[in-house]
Amino acid sequence: MKTPHVNLSNEDAMILQQISESGEEDLISLSHSLGIRRARVMASLENLRKKGLITIQRTAGDWWVHLSTKGKAITHYMWPEMPTMPV
Hints:
Arc Repressor Mutant, subunit A, 4 helices, alpha+beta
């Protein structure tokens, strides 16, 4: 099996882990739970989206974030002890 390789900043990895733990997150909750300004969370989410690790659904006033199939594979590789969320 080929080892996944994605370069992530510490902040991007924290956000990816938080999304993985909950299955889905919204921008406001991510910002509050991680203590990171909303603008920085938005920038990290956009980086993760460009890498194909998450999908973002924009709704009136908020963003809902889910792991993509690639994101689930990466998080399982990075944190194998975490329970796997259904596809």
